[in-house]
Amino acid sequence: MEFGDFFLLAKLHQSADQQLAKSLGTLKRVHVVLTPKRRRGILDLNYLVQSTLKLAGTVCEWEKLSCYDPKGVPALSTAVVAYWIITTVVTCATKVTAFTSAGDKAFDVSAYTSKVNCICSTLEEQLKTYRIKKG
């Protein structure tokens, strides 16, 4: 199941039309019972996905700058950033699978979120400094 479909089902469960959510869940072969604990987990997961996308966008900005000015742009450890992006994507996929399974497996994604946000803020700060320097 894709994250977008999963998040839509979660949103529908919170709305007034829960019958639609149950029907869509049956069509997708997902039997999600949304407890308050799972709702919080879904929101945490959504925040992690957004943070990862923001990090990927920042890396793309660095890559664009390095095409125009390869000597002026500070070196970016793309291997480390790629590692964290891939690790986060796998974590998100695992979390969606855990949510859609019948069991109540739960694990915290806050460590991944904080690491991704830390890397992203560092890269954005370096990017801002570079743009000010180049004027």
From TrEMBL:
Sieve element occlusion N-terminal domain boundaries: 1-129
Biological process according to GO: phloem development
PANTHER family referenced in this protein's UniProt entry, alphabetically: PROTEIN SIEVE ELEMENT OCCLUSION B-LIKE
Protein name (database record): Sieve element occlusion N-terminal domain-containing protein
